[in-house]
Specification:
With 305 residues, the protein is of the alpha+beta class. It contains eight helices and 15 strands. The chain has a 15-stranded mixed β-sheet that branches. It starts with a strand and ends with a strand.
Length: 305
């Protein structure tokens, strides 16, 4: 039985707008008579440190108040800090894209998310782990990884400090299309099969969406023990624009050159060129040569609708 809530709040989330939500959070929880504590993150990696310290608190729900980056850090902390106990994890979406919370069935509206949080309904949550690049020891993720085009889009969007929410990803997409270059040749192994192709985009998803708009894996289920693959063979600009439009509707599987599949593990190797890869928006590598991705079934419980 949950007795208290530890809310890990990133004050920089939503380009600094997260702190403006504090009165609503305090008023709601105080009115409901909820026992809670709010801890503010002070640096990159701090949310993971806090979550790891409290991962074994059986009666406490660990709540990520921020965007996808905050959720990612808290998941990494919970995975590194837990023992036999299965931690209870919740989200108050205060970021830009909030893709993890979307796939985790957490309402985007804060007061609705607070109601869901105290209701305490939970389900198992799978967690992915990617090994290689800047993280030879492994990095956990809750939503998904992207190799190629969408990672470059994310890096461009991050530069747009004064552009609102998902529009940063739209402008980042346009800028990346202008800079469009050749695709690396990637060897991918999963379900006992190996194939190679010039891949402009590889998404391996636990959730459904990235960038606030793009449904990389609309049919993904985050507690089935599998990760969903959406792989795009090299395309010219016109074909790529068509593919991106389909991504916004989740209908890309009908297009030629798209591979849709599921597996519990994947290996990616760059045969020519290097891989630019992110996990939940965290840069994993910029010239990666080999990566291992695996699904860990149900190590966390998530509070959801």
């Amino acid at each position: 039985m949950l007795k208290r809530y530890l809310i890990i709040l990133n004050p920089t989330a939503g380009k600094g707008a997260a702190t403006g939500k504090l009165p609503l959070i305090h008023d709601f929880l105080n009115t409901k008579g909820i026992e809670y504590e709010i801890v503010y993150t002070e640096k990159v990696g701090h949310a993971a440190e806090i979550a790891a310290e409290h991962a074994r608190d059986d009666d406490t729900a660990i709540i990520a108040a921020g965007g996808d980056g905050t959720c990612n850090e808290v998941i990494n902390g919970l995975m590194k800090g837990k023992a036999e106990t299965i931690p209870t994890f919740g989200v108050l979406p205060l970021g830009r894209g909030n893709d993890f919370s979307y796939g985790g069935h957490v309402p985007a509206v804060l007061d609705e998310a607070l109601e869901i949080m105290i209701a305490g309904k939970t389900s198992p949550l799978d967690v992915g782990v990617i090994t290689g690049g800047f993280y030879p020891e492994g990095r956990y993720f809750g939503n998904g990884i992207g190799a190629g085009f969408d990672t470059v889009v994310g890096l461009e969007a991050a530069k747009m400090k004064n552009v609102k929410d998902e529009f940063a990803y739209v402008f980042g997409t346009m800028k990346t299309l202008i800079k469009f270059s050749d695709s690396p040749e990637i060897e991918i192994t999963y379900n006992g099969n190996t194939t190679s192709l010039r891949a402009i985009q590889i998404s391996i998803m636990n959730g459904n969406r990235m960038g606030g708009l793009f449904y990389m894996a609309p049919e993904a289920v985050n507690n089935d023990g599998l990760l969903d693959l959406c792989m795009v063979a090299h395309k010219n600009r016109r074909q790529l624009i068509k593919t991106i439009i389909h991504y916004t509707k989740g209908t890309q599987k009908r297009l030629p050159g798209i591979t849709i599949d599921r597996a519990d593990s994947f290996t990616l190797k760059a045969l020519k060129g290097g891989m630019v890869v992110h996990a939940d928006g965290e840069t994993i590598c910029t010239e990666g040569k080999e990566l291992e991705i695996k699904c860990i079934p149900s190590p966390i419980k998530i509070i959801h609708t």
